Structures are given as C-alpha cells and as structure tokens.
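Standup notes
- DV: blocked on the single-chain target, sequence here:
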Amino acid sequence: MSLRSLPRYRRAAASAASASKLAFSSPRIALPRFARCYATPVTVNGFTQLKPTLYGQPLAPSHPHLVGPEETTPGIPQEEYDRRRRELMERLPDGSLVVCIAGQIKYMSGRDYKFRQSSDFWYLTGFEEPDAAVIIQKQPSCARGYRMVMFSAGTDSAKEKWDGARSSPDDIVRYFGADEAEPISAFPSVLKGLAASASHIYLDIPNTSKRARAMSPKSLLKYLSPSGGLSRGEYDSLVDSLSSSKRKPLAPEVGRLRAVKSKVEQKVMRQAADISARAHNKTMRFTDPGVSEHAVAAHFEYLCAREGSQRPAYVPVVASGPNALIIHYTSNNQLIANGEMVLIDAGCEYNGYASDITRTFPANGSFTPEQATLYNALLTVQKHLITLCTEATGMSILQIHRESCTLLRKELERIGFSFPLGAGTLDTLYPHLIGHPVGIDLHESSHMERDAPLKAGMVVTIEPGVYVPPFPEFPKAFHNIGIRIEDEVLVGKEHPVVLSVNAPKEIADIEGSCQGLLGLTPF
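- DV (later): unblocked, structure below
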C-alpha cells in the first residue's frame, strides 16, 4: 500500500516544495478559513503576532519574533528537516518503513508538566505536540525519495478553550512538509496497510524511564489508540506483522545522524551555550557567602529563562564546599560559607538543544593560594584536552579520557599529591569519564561508541574534575575541595571550537566576574 493511495484528511500538498512555497511566499498573515478565526493580529516592536495563536506551537505567522519566515522551529528551516529525513531514508534498504511516535504527557498533581517532545520525533519532524506519530515510506521514485504521513490529535474547539490551539491537518501539511495529514485514530489501520508490503519496519517509541522494559508492538498500539478502530482479528494481525523479523530498531539509525551537527544546529547550540555562559557569569556576581545554594540555582535558571530558554537542560548542581565532592549533587539546600568554593554545573535548553557548562569559583570572589594551585592544575589539563578534539587527531572520547588521567596525575604530583596505589587512588580523585556527546539530549551517547574516533561536526563536553576527600593520603591543604571545569566543544577538522567560550574560566576572569570588576551586574 502506498501513502499516495491513502484517503486524504482535509487536504494534502501536491509536494513538499509547493507546500513550503505556500507557507512562506508572503509575509502577510492569512487567517485560515475554519472555526478558529477569532485570532487577533497584534503588532509589538514591529512584529505582528496572532493572539491567541491558531497553531499548536510557535510558527512564523503567529510568532514572527521567534520563528523566521522559512523556519519550522526557531533557527531550523523546513529544508533542514527534509534533509534529515532524506539522509535517513537513503541509509535504509529499499522497501523500508519508518515509524516514529511523539512523546507522552506526564502529569503532576492535577495538571500536566510542561510537555517536551520525544527527541527523535522532533529531530525528524519539528512537531511539538503530543498524541502524534509519523510514518515515512522509502520511495526512490518520489522527488524527495520518500513520502510522509503525519498523525495528530487535530483541532477540538472545546479542548482548545482550556488548553489552547492544536495544529490542524492543513497546518501540518503546510508547515511540516507532510504529504498527508491524518487523525491519530487512523494510525493503526494505516500502519497495518503499509506494514504488509514493507521489507523492513524501523520502529521505536519513547520509554517512560531508562529502567522501563522495551515496549512491544501491542503496547505501541495501546499507547496510541486503545481500540484503534480495528477488529480483534485485524489487531492481532497487525501485532504479528510488527513482531516479525521485519522490525528493526530506529533509534540507532537516527542516532548516527544526530551525532554530527549541521551548520544550523551548530548555530543554535552556540546560542544555547552563550545564554548559559552569560548566566554563569552573572551568577558568579550574584553569589555571596550566606546565600543559599537554591537561591543561586534559581538565579541561574531565571537568567536563562529571561533570554528565551524554554527549560533547564537538567537539574542544576550548585555545590558549595565539601558538597562538591558529590558529582551529581542536586539537593542545593545548604548555605554557602565564606572561604568555600562553589561548583555550578548548569545549562539551559534553547530551541531544542541542550547546553552543558560547569564552572567553579570562590564564594567570596578571591581564590586562596591553595584553591588557585589546585584550580590551575586542573585548568592546564582541560585546556590541553580541548586541543585534541579534532578529526585530525583520530582520537575517541575514551582515548581523550586516558590522556586526561595521565595529564592529571602529572599535574597533581607536581603540586604535592602521590599515588602509591597507582590508578586506584586517582580514581578516588577523578571518578568520572572526561565527557560525552551533547545535542538535543544532554547525553547523546546511547548509540555512539565511546571508542569511535571523533568526527568534525560532533559536539562533546570536556570536563575533567578533581574531588579531594579529607583522607590522610592527600595533602591537607586541598581537603574538601571539589573542582570541575566543563566546556562544550565543537569538533573541527583541524581545530576545535569552544561553544561555551563566554563562560569565564581563567582565575583573573573569574575573580573579575565575582567582584564586579568587568562591569557585570547580577542581573
């Protein structure tokens, strides 16, 4: 069964190219001719917005201050999403079918949490609503090499009064490059028809947690539509077809594409890193002895949100003094003492991409001689490791980690540490890996081999750390000091680019930020 033969719901584009031209050919706002025409154009700072929006997410007609005229999501044009889908399908065998499912809404007490789309689904579509799915069929005879049908909840005027607009089928074809737009209730029957003739079916759905068991085809259909509009026999037949040898995991295929960032992705990631870097800078100025760690964390998140960040990329670490000996200290509930160092591991998510930066600085704005000595030892190591993040070196994350252990041991021995037990003692001081890939997810390493050479366009963190417990075998002057210095690095052919370069890490710059000598204010 071809996607071309599916019954069309509302309308379908003759081609993705014509749909794109239809959407973006005119800067004027043309209100769709259906029930939600009560949206009012409101002009602010030269931008004409639609209030309330007609769409399920920011799009150029409703949010021109966020989304450009040829963009599907902020910073990412429709042609970029098309390129991703084309490259994916070119890698797969003829007759392949890709099935990708949107994320699930998660609920707190009485209301739902702010929704975040499934990363792979967002990477392929840019669609940010729940209750959605996409089927992509490899068709070399088509201009794009594939045909795509998207499924969504569609519009519901009663629900929209409470929760806001959802994108209509017209919207989906026009702005997301779909060939067909269908209601989510049609998903099981459409999938059944296409699965029968497919040679391979690439399929994954979001797990509710890392510990959750992999979901079966049966749970997939239940997740999307408990009844599915199928008879019991048809339902069982579809489950059997998805359980056969045709079924292949989709995540590794998408993961290989996500590992290397395009130019537009690199630009968005630099913007995310800049927002986080400025927040680190101003948070250094904000922090004082006597302030609570949670106030510092809240200040960082506020600064990021004020610059347009949609959410934190992860729960921030604000660890003062001995709390920094805990790698993922997220309690953030103690008071910062005078003379302590403060380790902040925090970054924002901006327009779909995470940032990940760690800085360590003195709470009172001035390093003690002992703090400066240990800090400079670690900084020397970190700066050298960054130079290795090129395709030309042929090094992997694991090889760079081994180099970090060698260099850190030498630097620590130089300032008075000894390692009579060999690597085991260093593991006490430096128990984690040197870094990880970062992108749409904070850790984009699930389907990347750590021993594979880095390639130009990858973005990785370089984050050596040293955490000195009060053990007699370590110099007493450094007891209870934990330091980590983490940057985001764009791997280049010959030279790396530090995306987080605007977060201060030289001692003079850190003290200048803390003391207000650089003209910065806490806000």
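- Follow-up: The chain has a mean pLDDT of 88.
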